[in-house]
């Protein structure tokens, strides 16, 4: 491989030519037929035009792209599934490194270990592992990339039973800013292994992950739709916190979509759309689920025994314009529940939701300093989304979101990195306890002192100011 070009005059042209020579994978530029598809990410506000989108076919390709970015000075955006609400998977005028072609899957069902390419989506992983009656928890959405969700922590439908995604991470292969391909695990570069479990994409490009698999064949789970009443919401969250570890819940307060199985008079009205997943047999599942069903007459009850992958039906990645916010809450009483329901009922955003996830269980049994996700004792995490159409509606949606956040504020400014949306919305510092942040800064200084990996929730190298966005 020849050295990456350092052309000062026309860095992008020289870099594109060099990449076309060196890369086995796709090199997509503005004149390519699929440029608009290749630059597309989840965030509709990140309508950016990279000078080149590269889809590496191998780890060596990734090393080449990292070298090209480093030597040319072009901004590097690393993309897994493209779901970053801040649009971190793309860049204006830089190099977008799209890992989606790295989809190798090697599952050892006896050792219960999966070695997989970093370009898989959650759904692709879940389906492959599901063939063996095994699973790793990756959130609730099929099209989210395993790359982004893992480095940010990973809260999903199995979290109270098996912990966060990072708790199942056994190792990774990672390309550093200086172009080395490192094996990173408990024995090799343990500092880096600690940092990539919650510290985001600040430390390198992960080309392959190794995950522990757990026995999850059929689950008892699905959708439960309940009326949006304050006592029902508060009761739901209280039950979710007291439930056995086998049961994980996610409840969204939102206008009811036109679901054929919900009576039409509720369509467009606020409802509680809850996903409940019990890992275990039908008998104990029914026992754990009964109190939720007794909260109110369900508007729909689709909970049943089914294969875990059935909860991840294939989908196209949507593209949305949204204002997003996140908070940790200690508890939600009937008064807070009433505030939430009336804010969802009365919003300038045509589509909006407040999702509440009760944590605890196995998430809380991991020591706060064992990984770079340090908030193991939090009770409830929220994700607020106001989905608007047209830039002229953004300001009103932002004001609405901020008003609801202020109304729910319980004095906790900490934040879950994967749910932090827009640059500047929450300081990166809020995503980590102070000691964790300091340690991350020192590891960043060691592995990426020039902050090559800065298109992310940026952790500055020790003693430097973070990059914005
Ligand atoms: C619809 C939706 C549902 C969601 N549900 C959940 C959920 O249930 N639980 C949860 O915890 N989170 C959830 N999230 C948040 C999600 O985890 C984050 O947005 C995550 O960053 C998305 O990862 P991605 O690979 O798809 O995104 P990308 O935009 O591709 O990447 C996000 C960040 O991760 C970095 N990155 C991605 N892959 C790699 C890699 N291989 N090496 C180094 N850096 C990498 C990118 O550089 C970027 O900074 C959801 C988000 C959306 C939009």
Give a written overview of the molecule.
With 469 residues, this protein is α+β, with helices and mostly antiparallel strands. The protein has three domains: 11-98, Uridine Diphospho-n-acetylenolpyruvylglucosamine Reductase, domain 2, CATH 3.30.43.10; 105-215, Uridine Diphospho-n-acetylenolpyruvylglucosamine Reductase, domain 3; 218-419, Vanillyl-alcohol Oxidase, Chain A, domain 3. 26% of the residues lie in helices and 23% in strands. It has helices at 11-22, 35-38, 59-72, 122-130, 146-152, 159-162, 190-195, 230-242, 282-293, 334-345, 394-408, 434-447, and strands at 26-28, 52-55, 76-79, 95-98, 105-108, 113-117, 134-135, 169-175, 181-185, 205-212, 214-215, 218-227, 247-255, 270-278, 300-301, 304-307, 322-329, 351-358, 380-387. The strands form four sheets. Strands 12, 13, 14, 15, 16, 17, 18 and 19 form an eight-stranded antiparallel sheet that branches. It is globular, with a radius of gyration of 22 Å. Bound molecules: flavin-adenine dinucleotide (FAD). The site of flavin-adenine dinucleotide has 32 residues, from strand 3, helix 5 and strand 10. Flavin-adenine dinucleotide binds next to strand 3, helix 5 and strand 10.
